[in-house]
Amino acid sequence: MAYWLFKSEPSTWSWDQQVAKGAEGEEWDGVRNYQARNFMRQMAVGDRGFFYHSQKDKAIVGIVEVCAEAHPDSTTEDERWECVDIKAVRPFTIPVTLDQIKMDERLDEMVLVKNSRLSVQPVSDAEWQVICDLGQTKSD
DNA sequence: GCCAACGTTGGC
DNA sequence: GCCAACGTTGGC
């Protein structure tokens, strides 16, 4: 199983909205970046991801699961853009902030730190474990 | 609100 | 195919 990170401005699409969608999940639509799209194409049903709030929060607030593989993005006619569906799994007991991530040398190589603008990114197994520990949240 | 970083677009 | 111009993102 692979791990990922999904970034969203809470004013556009928040963790609470994601939770409200329940087990049905929701399209991770609106991505107009090739790198991000390519990562979504690599995702499999059952892969897990962090849900990150950018802007004001700047923190990982929850864990999501991919519940549909990449398919055309329903918000555009442009067939270049695809997206997966994700559903909320559980919230973080304690949100893990960008500050914490930057201070932890085990997370120095995270894409979130190295390329802060990429909205969908891969997370390594080790990074996943470290962040779940920091958030005192079950990692499976 | 500013600005650096980065991706995309379009003219050549 | 290059690169300048432009738009967007997101941390500060």
UniProtKB/TrEMBL annotation:
- SUPFAM superfamilies recorded for this chain? PUA domain-like (SSF88697)
Where the record annotates domain EVE, the positions are 2-133
Classification via PANTHER family = THYMOCYTE NUCLEAR PROTEIN 1
- Stated name of the protein: Predicted RNA-binding protein, contains PUA-like domain
